[in-house]
């Protein structure tokens, strides 16, 4: 599966547009991580636990988007984007979306 943030794949021709595909996951913060992150916030620096959490969420949402694209016969997803939204106190959705196409 080809994933691209562009509206095309260099060297390939789009032969069919199959529509918008998406994949999402909702993740909640971990209380233990919150306490350690709160302490880290006092001195500054990267909150590695949250960096890892978001990385996992991005990967899972991309995989789900790819599965949806494959299920409708796509071999590429173009114009891939991410969006986030808060769905509850301490929980957020990460959404990956794009246009499923067939390229040759």
Structural summary, described in words:
With 104 residues, the protein is α+β, with helices and mostly antiparallel strands. The chain has one domain: 2-Layer Sandwich (Translation Initiation Factor IF3). It is 36% helix and 41% strand. It contains two helices and four strands, in the order E-E-H-H-E-E. The protein has a four-stranded mixed β-sheet with strand order 1-3-4-2. The longest helix is centred in the middle third of the chain and has 24 residues, at 48-71. The two termini are 12 Å apart.
**Helical percentage:** 25-40%
SSE string, helices as H and strands as E: EEHHEE
Round the Cα radius of gyration to an integer and report it.
Answer: 17 Å
CATH C-level name: Alpha Beta
> Which regions are unreliable across 5 or more consecutive residues at pLDDT < 50?
none
The CATH architecture comes to 2-Layer Sandwich
Mean pLDDT, all residues: 88
Strand content: 35-45%
Helix tally?
Answer: 2
Main β-sheet, spatial strand arrangement? 1-3-4-2
So, the CATH homologous superfamily?
Hypothetical protein apc22750. Chain B
CATH topology: Translation Initiation Factor IF3
Structural class: alpha+beta
């Amino acid at each position: 599966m080809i994933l691209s943030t562009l509206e095309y794949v260099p060297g390939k021709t789009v032969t069919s547009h199959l529509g918008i595909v998406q994949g999402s996951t909702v993740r909640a913060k971990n209380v233990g991580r919150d306490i350690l992150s709160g302490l880290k916030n006092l001195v500054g620096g990267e909150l590695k636990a949250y960096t890892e959490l978001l990385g996992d969420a991005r990967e899972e949402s991309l995989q789900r988007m790819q599965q949806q694209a494959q299920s409708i016969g796509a071999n590429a997803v173009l114009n891939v984007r991410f969006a986030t939204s808060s769905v509850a106190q301490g929980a957020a959705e990460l959404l990956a979306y794009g246009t499923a196409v067939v390229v040759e």
